Amino acid sequence: MFSLLLASLASLSSLAGAQHLFDRNLAYSSPFANSPYLSHNTHALHARHVAFAKRQIDGPTPPQLGDTQSSEGFVDEHYPTFYGGDFSASPSIYNGGINFTHSVASGDPFDDSVLLWTRAVPIGSQLPDQSIPICASFKIFDNADLSGRPVDSGDAFTSYDVDWTLKVEANNLRPDSHYWFQFSDCTNSSTVSPVGTTRTISSPNRWFNAYGVAAHNTSADLFLHLGDYIYESLGNGAKIGRQTLGRELATIADYRLRLNQYRTDDDHEVADQAWKAGTADSNDTALGCSFSPSGACFTDRKLAAVRAYHEWMPIRQVDPDDKLRIWRNFQIGKLLDLTMLDTRQYDRDITDYLTECLAVINSIADVTNRSLMGTEQESWFYETLSESKARGATWRVVGQQIVFTMLNESGSLDVDAWDGYRSNRNRVLDHLYTNNIGNTIILSGDSHANWVSDLALLLDPNQTVTYNPLTGEGAIGVEFAGTAVSSTSSFGAGISPANADKISTVLVGANTDLQWSEGSYRGFFTLTLDPHQANATYWAMRNVSASAQLRHVHEGNANLGAFPSATFNVKAGANKLSRPVAGGSVMAGVLKVQGQD
Ligand SMILES: *[C@@H]1O[C@H](CO)[C@@H](O)[C@H](O)[C@H]1NC(C)=O
Ligand SMILES: *[C@@H]1O[C@H](CO)[C@@H](O)[C@H](O)[C@H]1NC(C)=O
Ligand SMILES: *[C@@H]1O[C@H](CO)[C@@H](O)[C@H](O)[C@H]1NC(C)=O
Ligand SMILES: *[C@@H]1O[C@H](CO)[C@@H](O)[C@H](O)[C@H]1NC(C)=O
Ligand SMILES: *[C@@H]1O[C@H](CO)[C@@H](O)[C@H](O)[C@H]1NC(C)=O
Ligand SMILES: *[C@@H]1O[C@H](CO)[C@@H](O)[C@H](O)[C@H]1NC(C)=O
Ligand SMILES: *[C@@H]1O[C@H](CO)[C@@H](O)[C@H](O)[C@H]1NC(C)=O
Ligand SMILES: *[C@@H]1O[C@H](CO)[C@@H](O)[C@H](O)[C@H]1NC(C)=O
Ligand SMILES: *[C@@H]1O[C@H](CO)[C@@H](O)[C@H](O)[C@H]1NC(C)=O
């Protein structure tokens, strides 16, 4: 027993250097790394951990050198289960077995690094002691057999503080390469996670040589989710066997639970119709604070959502001092710049969060100083577009949350999209036209329907070019907007293709630059780019329901039936959809100009 006590003492000295094991897990810096009240203080976590280890060796009769007595000096307080009866393996980290409950994920690739994610939950019915961290190792290899020396490896701690999430950065990777990675239990290398595969983007100075169906049936190099990723409301999950909380999300525990749920199988991410200080049903005002049963103010709610988001998503914190910044740019070879914007949570001026303010927002939609992105992000966006052209990247692909093109149906506009921020939209278009920045493709989420448009300046009084919707002449780019993965159509829940097409026919007739509209099918689209052209193929899922027994996609039974509903081509330098649009025919939805070929 004496030797065991020594092992504990010895571990204490090594613990002093162990703080990096907390820091290595990027989930602890969520959401605001340098903000004392809003991030985890890993010094404090480390101190808590060391105090625990001390507790394990401090007793009423401190052990003496040369002591041959058994462990009577030892007071185990109330945490015996997490060591079992055996203290030999590691006295200061949990060794009771771990479960990688949510498999693995990776994201935010650079040309030399990528983020790896998992969740390591202690096995057992009891929650572990809050001061005992769990240690997981990661290894990343350049081959699918995980053989040879790993390209990068390391250990990191996780704990209940971050919902057992673990997010590490794997470094020293080669550009434009595939990698395979796996996590294991530091105390038992036989306990391993599923193997994940990932890839880096190409370095800006080199050429880029190149959910269910997207993963199974496409060979995409990058997957973009444009939102909504999660919903905070009750929704229709119960019907398809996904249990819901029973109320709208408000607290950190609520958001963690929902992200957890989505990861076992989409403005939201925080709450519906979000802008910088409120949402459809919560404000920073007195009313906001009585919003939820937990009494959460909007700000509390937003912080909870952002914190859980960073814990659960394999993305980097772009700027540790910039509270909410997720907008950033990826220079992918000389082929493209992928510019990701936050047109929702960052610094957005007020939207129509209540039906009664729709008229107000409509009346201010053209006000010059209204911004969708906030001044800082907006200027950064224009500079990024200009720099991308200056460095000679062929394409500028802009990933953002809401539909850019005007969708006006007899005077009815969705002012929660760019239609509510029309002068901001004109500034974007002006920047492209004035600086002659071509080959811009805007990708949009949010709308639960499919839309494809030429980008054309329609409202600017200074407009000197005239857009011709038949030829595309006068456009400055294109927009591909995608529908929802599973949630219901904005044209009406369960709407049939024939009924959706009636609405689409009106919309493509009324909106000059809208070239295709489809509102019945759920799905996704692929975008394939080379230096000469870009193709977008829209995929329509035949059935988004799973069979009744299905709980995890990995278990099989997913309905993977899908068909390509429309394919669009854009030629480099053309700045418009190739004519005839979609080759003149589509399998679903309505083209402005049908059947010319
Ligand atoms: C591990 O987690 C999965 C998913 O939550 C669960 O089904 C399984 O029972 C867990 N295994 C153990 C040993 O706790
Ligand atoms: C180590 O992990 C393996 C696989 O999960 C398990 O079968 C084994 O019992 C574990 N060993 C110990 C000592 O917990
Ligand atoms: C938000 O605040 C405004 C102004 O105080 C108030 O009129 C409105 O009812 C509030 N909305 C919600 C959903 O709390
Ligand atoms: C925008 O301009 C209007 C009218 O000049 C002013 O009332 C409002 O405060 C300004 N808003 C912002 C966000 O600067
Ligand atoms: C929307 O369309 C109506 C005609 O249906 C028109 O009067 C109105 O000006 C349009 N709105 C905008 C912002 O262009
Ligand atoms: C139109 O041009 C004038 C003069 O260049 C400029 O001051 C104004 O901001 C422009 N308007 C828009 C909407 O861009
Ligand atoms: C785009 O589609 C055209 C027509 O099918 C094809 O010739 C071309 O290779 C495709 N280009 C890319 C980058 O997918
Ligand atoms: C979709 O799949 C579910 C579950 O397998 C099935 O009950 C339903 O009939 C299917 N719907 C259609 C339109 O095929
Ligand atoms: C997608 O791949 C799955 C699994 O390989 C297959 O069952 C399914 O038929 C494929 N779907 C399409 C649209 O090719």
UniProtKB/TrEMBL annotation:
<feature type="domain" description="PhoD-like phosphatase metallophosphatase">
    <location>
        <begin position="204"/>
        <end position="537"/>
    </location>
</feature>
<dbReference type="Pfam" id="PF16655">
    <property type="entry name" value="PhoD_N"/>
</dbReference>
<dbReference type="InterPro" id="IPR029052">
    <property type="entry name" value="Metallo-depent_PP-like"/>
</dbReference>
<feature type="domain" description="Phospholipase D N-terminal">
    <location>
        <begin position="102"/>
        <end position="200"/>
    </location>
</feature>
<dbReference type="InterPro" id="IPR032093">
    <property type="entry name" value="PhoD_N"/>
</dbReference>
<protein>
    <recommendedName>
        <fullName>PhoD-like phosphatase metallophosphatase domain-containing protein</fullName>
    </recommendedName>
</protein>
<feature type="signal peptide">
    <location>
        <begin position="1"/>
        <end position="18"/>
    </location>
</feature>
<keyword id="KW-0732">Signal</keyword>
<dbReference type="InterPro" id="IPR018946">
    <property type="entry name" value="PhoD-like_MPP"/>
</dbReference>
<dbReference type="InterPro" id="IPR038607">
    <property type="entry name" value="PhoD-like_sf"/>
</dbReference>
<dbReference type="InterPro" id="IPR052900">
    <property type="entry name" value="Phospholipid_Metab_Enz"/>
</dbReference>
<dbReference type="Pfam" id="PF09423">
    <property type="entry name" value="PhoD"/>
</dbReference>
